[in-house]
Amino acid sequence: MVPQQFTSHDVTKLIVRVSLKDRAAFDLLYRATSAKLFGVCLRVLSDRAEAEEALQEVFVKVWTKADRFVVSELSPISWLVAIARNHAIDRIRARSPRAAAIDEASELADARPGPEAQAIAEGERDRLGACLGELEADRAAAVRGAYLNGDSYAELAERFSVPLNTMRTWLRRSLMKLKECLER
Amino acid sequence: MTPGEDRTPDAGGDDHLAAEYVLGVLPGNEREVLARRIATDAGFARLVEAWEARLSPLNSGYDEMEVPASVKQALDARLFGHGAPATPKSGLLQSLAFWRGLAVASLAAFFIAIAIPLVLPVATTPGTRLVASLAGDKTDVRYLAAYDVRSSEIGLSHLAGDRAAGHDFELWIIKGKEPPVSLGVIPAGASVHLAVTPAHRDLIGSGALFAISLEPRGGSPTGKPTGPVVASGDLRAL
Q1: What angle do CA B214, B218, B221 make, to 5 degrees?
Q2: Measured between CB atoms, does A160 come within 8 Å of chain B?
Q3: pLDDT tens figures, B91-121
Q4: For position B227, what pLDDT does the model report?
Q5: B89 interaction partners in chain A (CB closer than 8 Å)
Q6: In chain A, which segments carry CATH 1.10.10.10?
Q7: CB-based contact A17 B25, cutoff 8 Å
Q8: CA geometry: angle at B183 spanning B178 and B185, to 5°?
Q9: The CATH number of A1-110 is which of 3.20.20.80, 1.10.1740.10, 3.50.50.60, 3.40.50.2000?
Q10: Which fold has domain B92-237?
C-alpha cells in the first residue's frame, strides 16, 4: 500500500522536481500517489487492464506537464486526481455506447462499493458535504455519482428515469446551488 | 489565431460549462472542444480550476487501490526506454524547465521557499543565465523568458494570453534609456526559442527590460514598436 508519510507539501516538492525532469522524484511521486490515481481510473473505467493502461498514460502526462502545476492553485493531490479523472472520463466517452452498456451491466452493479455511503463515511464532513446535504437526496446522489463514476448525462437520465434535458437542468441547478452555498 | 472569436460574453453559461466539464457528464466531443478551450483561454481555464477546487473534497470517495508492479515497469519503458538510468538529464531543455520553475516562483512568493532549496543544487554555472517574467497590467499575456548567455538563445514559455487575429508578438530589449531594439517575432507555441545575433548580445544584461508588443503579422514594419506593449519584465541574473 501507499506509504503514508508523504504530506501535501512533500507531493508539491516532488511535482516541482518532476518538472525539472528529476527521475528519482518521479519514482517517489509514483510511489506516493499511484494507488490513489489507480483508484480513480479503476472506479471510472471498471476494467483492470484498461485502468492500468490509463494509469500509465496519466503518469506520462504528469511527467510531461508537471510544469503546469506551478501555475495552478489546486492542492497537489487535487491537481493529480483532476488529471486522472479527466483522462479516465475521456477514455470511457471514447468507448462505443454498446461497450459501455455491457460494462455497466456486467461489472458496475457488483464491483462498486456503495459510493454515496462510502464518501459520506470517509469524512466528507466539510463544507461541500454540508452543501450537498442541502440538495434533494436524489440530486446529491446524482452529483456524487457523476463525479466519482464519470457517469454521462445519458446514463444518469436513464438511471433516474428522466429525460436527458431534465437531468441536465437538475445537475446545472444543483451545481449552482452548491456554489452559492459554498460562497455563503 | 482566432480561438476567441466565437466566445460568448455570457459568464453564467461559461460557468455552467466549466462545472459540467469538471463533473464529467458531457459527451466526448463536447469534452474535446472544452479541453482545447482550457488550453487557449485563460479565463475559462480559471473557471474550470475553481470548480475542480470546489468539488475536490469528493476525491475522498476514491479508494486507494494496489497497482501491479508491472505497470511501473511498463511506464518506465514507455518514458525512458529499457534500462535507462534514473539520473537527471542535462542540457537546455532541462535548464529551461528549471528557470521556468524559478521564475514562476518569483510570481508566487510562497513558492520560492519550496523551489529554491530544491533547484539550487541543480544550477551548475551561476551567472550564465538571465530570467524575466513578462506580464502586463491591461492584458493577460504572460511569458517567462530565460536567456542563456553561452548559447545566446532566449527560451520563451507562453503561459497565458493570445495574440489578436492577424497579428504577431514581437520581443524587444530595452537597455537603460536607449530605444527598444527588436529581438524578433515570437514564434507561436508553448515553448519557443529565439537566437540572439552577436550585435544584440551586449544589450541583454541584468536590469535591462524585455517587452512584448503586438505587431502586424511578420513584425513591426518600421523597426520600432508600432502596437501596444502587452507584457514586459526586468531581466535578472540568477
Answers
A1: 80
A2: no
A3: 444 455 555 554 554 454 444 444 444 444 3
A4: 85
A5: 21
A6: 113-184
A7: no
A8: 130
A9: 1.10.1740.10
A10: Immunoglobulin-like (2.60.40)
